[in-house]
Protein 1
Amino acid sequence: ENDAENDLGLALKTRPKTQRPPMYKVLLLNDDFTPMEFVVHILERFFHLDHAQAFEIMLMVHKKGLAVVGVFSYEVAETKVTQVMEFSRRHQHPLQCTMEKE
Ligand code: TYC
């Protein structure tokens, strides 16, 4: 904490602005073609979710159109997006993964 003084000479307590790095949501988007089991596999492999959590998030995306998979620093979020996009492309699935500032 910092002490400050206003122009009446009164000591004030002010909070120093602690800068936290911005965090990024990683979003998974629904499509009509990617198999459900493939999405579950992606969530287990790249987001370290157990099978039940992975299945739950996959179903949420399937029903709602998209879901937040996790919240990460910029670098980690970007790595996850790249991993998902490359792995999906390599298996010829149109799965889309994006990131968004929180
Ligand atoms: N909608 C897909 C299907 O019915 C499953 C799916 C779920 C696809 C989540 C993408 O991010 C996704 N096979």
Protein 2
Amino acid sequence: TGMVTLDPGFGNTAACRSEITYIDGDAGILRYRGYPIEQLAEGATFAEVCHLLVHGELPTPEQLDELTARLRDNAAIPAGLRDLIAAFPVEAHPMASLSGAVNMLAAFHADACDPADPAQVDEATIRLLAQLPTVAAQIHRRATGQDVVEPDPSLGYVENFLNMTFGPTEGGVDPLLVRAMDLLFILHADHELNCSTATVRVVGSSQADLFASIAAGVNALSGPLHGGANQAVLEMLEGIQRVDGDVDSFIKKVKDRESKTRLMGFGHRVYKNFDPRSKQIKKLAQQILSRQEGEDRLFELALQLEEHALSDQYFVDRKLYPNVDFYTGLIYRAMGFPTNMFTVLFAIGRLPGWIAHWRELRNDPAARIARPRQLYVGPKERAYPGRS
Ligand code: CMC
């Protein structure tokens, strides 16, 4: 106990020591386990990054083979969960369906729920990584009224996910889309104590099981200030397009406090410089969108918004730069995902980070139950008036 410090939103409170991810927000640096994000984006696959985050080192070729095989062998979800997803309302938001389904994974994998048993934690880790894409794809099929496509053991992790989501196509899944999706998953894989990861740790600190903790992370991710921003950015761009692409008026509105409008996909608690992920993502957006016929009007609007904001004193003074969510939605849209699926894709990418943090917490001798303090500012003691 002792003196309690007020720190809303934990802007200045380190809740743990961590060996997973390093961020220098002023310099725009991001590293997973010491490896610069640019190098991982260039050379690694998502499966390698999963191993790196969860186990601390890049996999040896044998370890990678084993991980790949286990992910493949565990990709099918329990039949009961498949039936449950088929009964979800067609109009449900996919993030609501996702958190419900992840909660139910605990019920269907009761043999992997003991947080104190390392073998069960290992099983839970694999089943989550293997089955989240299957769950996500089946949620998409349900929401779009299409039949489920079962996992195909002949396909790689990301290829399989795209195949289950969009259905088999002649000639197989486009390799450029597979590479793009893999890269986006890598860029989302961890970001130290963001809102959802902090949530996973808070829930895990009560010794709740891994599935329960991850389901809580999914819910934290859904909000528009966090993972939900990728959906919000696209809706913002569409809104601007509806008023004839008037970027000037929109920026003016953002700067007017009364309007309570934010430039979605801009700003970050830690980065006060370019988010290194957003640089990679902008390049990827250019690459993917240049394959389409004609210009992409929403991409043009996004470029204009960025240019405007970066030269406007309001954004310069507050060090507001595009974040990871600014350009991702445009890529997902070009791939064929509906807007309300965007945050589900973020969740698939962030999953290894959530798991790595939960495991680090479980192995941290200094870890205690998360229990912040408060400063009470309510009424002083007063007497209940009683009944007359
Ligand atoms: N548009 C306009 N003004 C902004 C924005 C924005 N996007 N972001 C911050 N500001 C202003 C804010 O009004 C405040 O101004 P003032 O000092 O005059 O009151 C100042 O900048 C500091 O903002 P803050 O809200 O104290 O910053 P925070 O660290 O609490 O919030 C944030 C960080 C990411 C929630 C916020 O920047 C934001 O709401 N951005 C838009 C939503 C978004 O893109 N979220 C995705 C975050 S990145 C990855 C992820 O988690 O998904």
